[in-house]
Amino acid sequence: MHLLVLGGTGFLSGEVVRAALSSGHRVTAVTRGRRPEPGADAPAVRSVRADRDDVAALTEAFAPVLADDAPDAVVDCCGYTVDGARAAADALAGVPRYVYVSSISAYRDWPPGPVPDESAPTFGSEASPEEYGPMKAQSERVLEDAFGNRLLSARAGLIVGPGDRTLRLTSWLHRIATADRVVVPATGDVPVAFVDVRDLAGWLVVAAGADWSGPVNATGPVGMTTYGGMLAACRDAVVASGAPAAELVPVPPARLLEAGVEPWTDLPFWLPDDVAATAWQVGTARARELGLPSRPIEDTVRDTWRWLATAGLEQPPVPDRVDPRAFA
Ligand SMILES: NC(=O)c1ccc[n+]([C@@H]2O[C@H](COP(=O)([O-])OP(=O)(O)OC[C@H]3O[C@@H](n4cnc5c(N)ncnc54)[C@H](OP(=O)(O)O)[C@@H]3O)[C@@H](O)[C@H]2O)c1
Q: Which atom of ligand 1 is nearest to the CA of 52?
């Protein structure tokens, strides 16, 4: 199969390129050329420079690809504007299959959710497409109008794994590896779910060659781990590498909120109880039926920790609000 990847040098898109190559597919990657990371520039990859949000640029860049070796499928990993969806719908209309990486943020009532399955309502066209969730919902509709049942919209959940430069999972690893004591929310038994970037990328490549259509919640199964399980995996990964690991200091959510601790940003992945009770409840029965794998969180965390050792990722100082001395 000849796969056209929109993106190719980023977190998910780089992994999609790697997965496609390792399955023996030919890859053309479209980027603006801002990230000189391996992937799209590997010799087996045809690298095309264009801003995918610009229909004229995308059409012009795509013309020689179409003339030489028409792609069998698109995997769209950089849909960040509705104009970008329109540009792809126009420039790539003749490609037989389109897999769009959307987000569970497309759901109108998430958070707090729950999202039992893909029939839950998404944002309507009245919602501002300047915002991420409405933009994803609107982009899905634009692409569905163009590609119909040739479109699969993979509504990704939280993507984690090696190469993740968002300061979420890596922030926990960094804190645990560099402090003596680390404040954590005392919500250890709350179920949480993530999707490993390698599981998602490999599956997107399979999806590009399948005849699946419509939306699918592309994340880990409800209850795949808990908040405490994720933190324990971080601690275990640090300890297994021979580094000292911090003592975890659980603080009840009410005390955290009283102290002005910002959910999610100060303590990554932490949501207040009323939101957490439903926000992590995203039904993934269809993804499981379609074979989206879900490796153990311990494997994801261990590999992320190994990657972090050489990633040169700068971590901001831990906010004073979550200094353990404030909760003594
Ligand atoms: N990270 C998550 O937890 C999460 C959760 C749900 C959904 N998603 C979705 O997953 C997808 C991938 O996310 P990611 O963070 O892993 O992104 P990514 O793969 O790092 O995407 C960035 C890639 O796309 C290229 N790119 C970005 N804008 C472009 C443009 N206008 N024209 C051409 N190329 C462009 C970048 O190269 P250049 O900069 O060189 O152009 C880079 O290769 C996104 O659609 C995101 O909305 C992510």
A: 32
